[in-house]
Amino acid sequence: MSELSLERGLAAFREEIDAPVAAFFSSCIRCGLCATACPFYVETGDPKYTPILKLEPMRRVWASEFTLWGRLKGLVGLAPKVTDEMLAEWEELLYDSCSMCGRCSLVCPVGNDLQYMIRKSREAMVASGHAPEGLIGAASRAIRTGSPMGLQWKTLDVQIKHVESSTGLEVPVDKPGVEYMVLLSSMEIINFPEYLEAIAKIFDHAGVTWTLSTDCYEATNAGIQIGSKDIAAELVQRVVDAAVKLKVKKVISPECGHAYTAIRWEGPNLIGKSYPFRVFHIIEVLDELRAAGRIKTEGKETDRLSLHDPCNLARKSGVIDQQRNLMDLVADNFVDLKEHGKYQWCCGAGGGVSSNERAEHLKMAAFKRKKAQIEEVGPDRMVTMCATCRTQLEEGLEEFNMDIPVVGLTEMIAEHLVEKEQRA
Amino acid sequence: MAHHKTLGESLRAHGVSRRGFLKFCAATASMMALPPTMTPAIAAALEQARRPSVIWLSFQECTGCTESLTRSHSPTVEDLILDVISLDYHHTLQAASGEAAEHAREVAMRENFGNYLVVVDGSLPGPDSNPGYSTIAGISNYQMLMETLEGAAAVVAVGTCAAFGGLPQANPNPTGAVAVQTLAGDKPVINVPGCPPVPMVITGVLAQYLTFGKLPEMDQYNRPLAFFGQSIHDRCYRRPFYDKGLFAETFDDEGARAGWCLYRLGCKGPSTYNACATMRWNAGTSWPVEAGHPCLGCSEPKFWDAGGFYDALSVPPGDTGSTLLAAGVSGAIIGGAAAALAKRRQKADLAERQPVKIDELEQKL
To answer: Is the ipTM of this complex over 0.85?
Structure first.
């Protein structure tokens, strides 16, 4: 059987180095601003977590293979080599201490997209066999069971039955020709079943037709997190096949950050063709319904609420106003964190960090930045729209003994819907 | 030779009036950018000056500098001042010839040892060159200069050949020509470059030396600042056209006829320091730029090798253009080759690419 090897890793580096990467490396001015943008560096103070240093293996390959000087140095044996030992050392830097939040890319004064290069570096880490076990496990379960957490349809089926009995509404499954196909994340199915209930209520309220698919209900993409386009493409293809089979024109990505960027932005490139449908984040759909007057709410939350923007949604996809429009609908006392929207700080768990048990201490260290942001504002509750962020906020706030509950925005909207009888 | 006579006495003997003499002194003062109050000082100095002995050596030259000198246009006093300095040896101008001529030089050297002024026009083959390239009375230029310099108070290098090597030294310099200052050792050198120098500048420098008995203030090329302190461009009467961006593009276009700036026709005025623009030539009649021709930059070192006379200054001199082009092209080829190599390797990698399979990943668990 074939094996992952250093050679395949180096080939992957070469393959991933494209014109933007070459331009980025040659234009880096070594100012170190990326370090001050990175929660892992800021909260640990360890210079090895400087984002550009995390890219050193890729930089070495670029320098020795794609620059004249590097090739000449290589000829006389002066070019530093990328070895298995080096990649093993960098595994922690490329996975454990990076949530691919993209804040470094945002602040880079010469416009280098570091996050893009981290994503590409991970391709080589996978090909050389240097991916963390936790992520390999998640990828394996995603491919073999359809869920990175190893869930099976029967688990979801139990939740569906539960939602149907508590709401009296039907949860449509495998219904062709409806408007939306709804995707979920395993984290929601296990930790936050209220999301599915909220969807059922809101769509019933707004008169939206939708369905789940037994072929593919999982939106998350372990291939994106571990950094393997082969695995990521396979997972994206499942979504495409399911949507095509049900002839839907719109697919909804759930309250999850990376799932959205995976299916919305990377997906068509991964499978090499455009979709016959459009992809939305649930927050985008809800805001459209709100704007169209199809969501009628009553009453408002009166406690002090603040919002955590998921990196993938706000910084990387520009979904920033939508969640605030929705907050205004249901919250009286909403206050933004000081740095929010595209400048928000990562919760510390994204980009595969939360699936990587080994990274637990770093994940909590990075959370301290979020904690400081929350303490500045002092809200009674936090609202967010990503299951991973939400879990991290809950765990982190508990770790630091802060009594601040975390809620999902979708379920908060659902709680304020005007009852059908009253509307009529 | 009337060594006992002062300059003033000589001038009066030659029929130069006191008024004429003072006019010359005032002109000299203004020429050298001295305040008018210096005129009496110049007059007094010149009146008292003993006629210094001057030995004029001509080496690898075209006699243009001497021609220029003899056309000195100021009042005839300038001619007189050349009469009254004791020009003891000058190939072209002296009446003596053969052994008598050389004898005059030897006598002047012996009698004025340590005090005479040496004027040189023309460059000379350096000490390492074949001495036969230029000889006078069987003596090589190098040998003659060295023995004449021995008792000299100072040396004035007249013309660009003497000052900077000039045409003989221009690439490929077949005679191994060198400038006087490279051989002068610790003797003071005054360079009066130009091809040829402005006549009044030659006489002016000599007058200044006589007046103050010391070397004038000089720039980094040992050129007297009084005459070489400002660029042609800064004093050019066509400068307003340059400032307005009005340029002649050819020698017969409207701009040329209207007298616009000649910069684009290769004028070296901006990088040339000389007095042409202020003193002009042929008794103040005109000067090259006024006649419609760009400045060649003849008073600057290496002006023969500084690129085409008709290339604008912004065009790099010499073959730098083609060198740059060649460097750029070879760089592009090497870089392109490196990029192509990298690209080919990338393609090969892509062709042999093994997709990562889940069971391969699982082996790592």
So the answer is: no
